## 1
Amino acid sequence: MQLSVILSAVVSVLTAALVYADGPRTQCVETYRPTATDTCSSISAWSTVPVSTIQSMNPGMSCSAPMGASTVCLRKFLPTCTLNATAHETTCNDLATYFNLTQSQFVQLNDNVDNACDNLVIGAPYCVSIADCFPGNTNPLCTGHEGRK
C-alpha cells in the first residue's frame, strides 16, 4: 500500500513538471494594418487566411469595419525551445539574469508564466532559449553556460 502511495506521488510530481514545461508563446510573423473599411471577410478574401483563423489569432478584435485594431495578425509561428533550466525560486529573476534575458523575454519564452513573472514552480523546467545552437554559432545564448551546445 505504501508503494502505491509513493508511486502515485511520483507520478503527480512528474505530471506537474510536464504541465509546467509549456514552452514559448506563439509569435505573430505576418501582420496587416487594416483600413477603416476592412473586415475579417475582406482581409480573408485577399489573404486566403480563413476568417475563423483571423479571429482566433486576434482575440477580442472586432471583425466589422472599423476593426478597432492597429494591426491584424495573419500568420503565427510557434518557436521550439532549445534549452530548459530548472527554477530555484518562484520568480524569474535568477533564471532571467543567468541567461541574459529581460523579464519580458522570459515571459515570452514561457506561456505558463504570468507577466509579473512571479508564478514559477520550484523544480519545474522553464524555457530559456529558442536559439538554434550548433557548433560555431556565435549567438550568446548558445555559449558560456553548462549544458549548451
Note: Residues 27-77 form a domain with the Membrane-bound Lytic Murein Transglycosylase D; Chain A fold (CATH 3.10.350).
## 2
Amino acid sequence: MNIIECTIRMKEQARDHYRQLADRVAGAELQRIFSLLAAAEEEHIQRLRVIGQEVESSSTAAVDEGACRFNPAIGLVDPELELENDPDAYRHVLKEEEDTIGFLEQVRSQTDNEQTRWLCGMLAEKEREHLTMLANIYSFVEEPRTYLEWGEFGNLKGL
C-alpha cells in the first residue's frame, strides 16, 4: 500500500465515522455538523483519488497497512454523553486532522524514497487545507451564537 492509498483509507474511515456519529446523535445541530464533516471528507477523498491516478504508485515506498488507521477521539457508544460537557468538541476533529498531518510528516522524515517524500509533503499540505476547511465548517455553524446581534439568524435555518 502506498502513501496515497493509506491516506485515502484513513479518510474513508473518518468519513464513515462521521456518518455514524450523525446517525447516532439526537440534536439537529450535531447531526448537521457531522453530516457536513462526512461530506467534506468525501470531497477530500475524491481529490486524493485524482492525485493517486496522476502519480505512478510503483515509484513510491510502501507503507505498513497497520499504520493506516483512523483513530477517532469521539466514540460511537454514547457520543452525546461525550459531547455534552465539551463546548469545544469540534477541537477533537481538528486534532484528528492534525494527527494525520503528523503521520504524513513522520513518514516523510523516515523514508529514503524521494517520490514518497515529495508525496508526503504534498499530502500534508492538502491536509492542512482540509483542516482549514473543517475549522470553517464549525465556524459557519456556530457563527450566529458568537455575535449577539446576529443570534436571531441561524446559519442552519432558512430565513
Note: The chain has a mean pLDDT of 79.
## 3
Amino acid sequence: MNPDRRPEGAPTIKSVQHDAAWRARFYKGVAQPYPPGLGEADQGDWFTPFNRPGATPPYDLRGWHARTPREGARPASKSRS
C-alpha cells in the first residue's frame, strides 16, 4: 500500500475553468479591489470554503446569511483612547 501516491488510472484534473457564477459566489461580500491573498487562481475543482456560506451572524463577515446586503457586514470597531 502506498497512501502517498494516487492509484494508477485515477482521474486527474487537466484544466480548470471557473464561470461568472462561480466567481460571483467566490467573491460574495468581498470589496474590490479583490485582495490577491484570497487566492482565486489557487482554487481548483475541489472543495473550497470560500464559495459557500459558513458561520452565521455576528461572525458572517461576508454577508452570506444576511437578509439585506449590509446586514451580515461587521460594524466598524471604535478605537478606545
Note: The first helix runs from residue 20 to 26.
